[in-house]
Amino acid sequence: MTELLCADCVGKSYRGRRILSSASLRAVPGELRALLGRNGAGKSTLLKIAAGWVQPDTGSVRWDAETLDRATLSSLARLGLFYLPDHDLLSDAFTIRRQLEMLMRQYDGLEPEEAARRTGVEAHLDKRPRSLSGGELRRAELAAVLVRRPRCLLADEPYRGIAPKDAEVLTSVFRELAESGVAVVVTGHEVPTLLAAADHVTWCVSGTTYELGAPERASEDERFRREYLGAGFARAVR
Amino acid sequence: MSMLRSNTLVVRSCLLRGAILWLLARTLISAMIVAAYGDPFAVSARSAVIIIGMSTALAFAQTARLRERVLLGNLGVPGATLAAYFALPALAGELVIALLGAALG
Q1: Residue in A73, A94, A98 nearest the CB of B74
Q2: In Å, how far from its chain's centre is CA A161?
Q3: C-alpha angle with apex A125: A122 to A131, nearest 5 degrees?
Q4: Residue A136: burial class (beta carbons within 10 Å; 0-12, 13-18, 19+)
Q5: pTM for the complete prediction?
Q6: Which residues of chain A have pLDDT under 50?
Q7: Does A89 touch chain B (CB under 8 A)?
Q8: Contact B78 A99 (CB under 8 A)
């Protein structure tokens, strides 16, 4: 297991409130990793730190085993990272097509039409993001990922507020990316979906993280079941 | 500068935003100068720098309002490059105005 991206033992406080004390996140090529945890546990903060969007108070970010002095999203993006935030990625100032073309030209990526076809948004290419539904918007953002062809994808709560049909598309693209060698990390609260899709589970709790391993193993972890999944949780296995 | 060569779509969009916001800021400031019986073409170098800074800040605010910072980050555009793209039209505009002012006496 050689990680491509690693946020190692990071700590972060906001206005005196400690969000993360010593949390780690690893993105491994060919693996889809699920980062789970309650609201406010620090999942998004950890993902933002790994993406270079937020600077940690302590700890470090490594890319390809090289520690980066001050990792920023733009520097990591040039190395091959794509960060899908929990809020809208695409701008309302341009059409979807224009934004996909920007990515294609920057990275010599996949044709926007091809990416849009694979995510089912080819009919919306000439629309602006504000005219799309939540699910369509997520699929358009996924098209941006496909155009970019990243080496590592960090997706923050991509399943939030979308229909099961859109969630299926998301899962299938995440799996496809992982199987093609991309290091994928996804956060969210859609536990059955994420456990069914993931290769590895990381649990974020009390400002730290635990590597629980494969979903089957994770769902048998007593503390994870007791404190996060709940007693009545039906095991979701692939 | 490789960014300038590699992605004309991004550069053009940033330059256009910088130009529009500089024009807006310059028009407002010029109107205020005229209202105070001043010459809008004869601003000091210090004032010109302030106008360039203001329009660059406005362009950043607009980018934040439209939530484009993550997209630009994913496009590999660092903040300093973005600031340069936003400031360039304002700088060019102020230079043109200064030259016009000098030519008109």
Answers
A1: A73
A2: 16
A3: 115
A4: buried
A5: 0.90
A6: 234-238
A7: yes
A8: no
